[in-house]
Amino acid sequence: MHMKWRIITCIIFILILDLVLPIKALAHGVKIEYTVNMAIEIIAAYDNGEPMGGAQVTVYAPDEPSSPWLTGVCDDRGYFSFIPDTSKPGTWDVQVRQAGHGDIVHIPIGEDMVVTGGTGGYTALQIVLMAACFIWGSVGTALYFSRRRRA
Amino acid sequence: MHIPDGILPVPVTAAGYAATVVVTWYSVRKINQKENPRQDIPKASLLTAAFFVASWIHIPVPPTSVHLVLNGLLGAVLGYFAFPAILIGLFFQAVMFQHGGLTTLGVNAVIMGLPAIIAHYIFRIRRFGNQESRRKTGIFGFLSGAVAIGISVAMFVLILLTNIPADLDIGTERAALYTLAIAHLPLIAIEGVITLLLAVFLQRVRPRILDGV
Architecture of B10-210 per CATH? Predict the structure, then answer.
């Protein structure tokens, strides 16, 4: 009788162990490795804000600036991304071009890397300059016509 | 309509500069042959400023948008002053707002400036025959504005079509250029109408401004 209870207890214990630790019983150990792949995302738009959908992108690696390292096409939002070869530090040039319009952005990869950057857009100085040009133009126009009137 | 830096090969940009030097020299020579070459300088300055800001005025033409150029208007109202005016306007657009480029300044001046001189001669046709009438000023004003921008678009597309780099998908770039050319068709009419309105307006309120051209 005592022996019987011991066997039953043992079976119940094994069953409970199986329920509690099922993974341990079924799977082996897990090994995770990781590598950081830095993707560069580009958003290209015309200066009036319209995205350069379908524009052709040419990427030049620093070690070979004359022949393209990668070519591709922007999506409808003017978006394009690629993973540069980090074993080639230096300035990567990315040209976006469509129907004779386009620009080149210089992206430093390596020690002097910056998280965001770009080309185009108006600085505060340029906006001030635009306003000054507009005022000067208006005054000039007024003076031009008033001069004619007196003549 | 403004070709930026890095799009055209060096020989083409150099040829653009060479052509610009020749046409500027010829334009200045023509200006100096006038009785009073300095008389039209304020008018030229005024329209240089108009040309400078015109490129900020965007007109939506789905699926894209185009901007005013006004080179035909400058040609009609300024005559040979138009070429140096456009050259100066393009220089400031490139330096201040990165619109166009310094290496492509010569090519852009040819694309926009030469049709302006053609517009000048088209506008002069109004003087032939009978008395200069408002209708003739209107018709040739429209034609000068429309033809100039039309030739500019054709030159722009032609120069780019013949200089597509080998590493680009030539078919895609060609299709994009054709789309751009088609998008400029309404601009031909718009610039024609603007030149017509200004020419008729000037003839009515201040005909002396159109005397020299």
Answer: Orthogonal Bundle (1.10)
pLDDT digits (tens, 9 = 90+) for A27-73: 678 888 887 778 899 999 987 788 898 999 999 999 888 889 999 99
A99 CB near a chain B CB, below 8 Å? yes
Smallest Cα–Cα separation from A45: which of A71, A70, A73, A74? A74
A-chain residue closest to B183, CA distance: A99
Task: Using an 8 Å CB-CB cutoff, list chain B residues near A129.
Answer: 96
Q: Which residue bears the tokens 């019983």?
A: A25
pTM: 0.80
* Cβ-proximal residues to A52 (8 Å cutoff; 6+ apart), any chain: A44, A45, A46, A74, A78, A96, A98, A101
List the beta bridge partners of residue A108.
A91
Candidates A141, A52, A50; CA nearest to A95 is A52
Cβ atoms B3, B160 nearer than 8 A: yes
Instruction: Report the alpha-carbon distance of residue B201 to residue A73 in Å, rounded.
Output: 48
B190 HSE (CA, 13 A, CB side): 16
- Count the neighbouring beta carbons within 10 Å of the beta carbon of residue B101: 22
d(CA A2, CA A7): 9
- DSSP one-letter string for A45-91: B-TTS-B-TT-EEEEE-TT-SSS-SEEEE--TTSEEEE---TTS-EE
What is the ipTM for the molecules in this complex? 0.74
Residues on chain A touching B160 (C-beta within 8 angstroms)? 99-100
Cα B213 from Cα B204, distance rounded (Å): 16
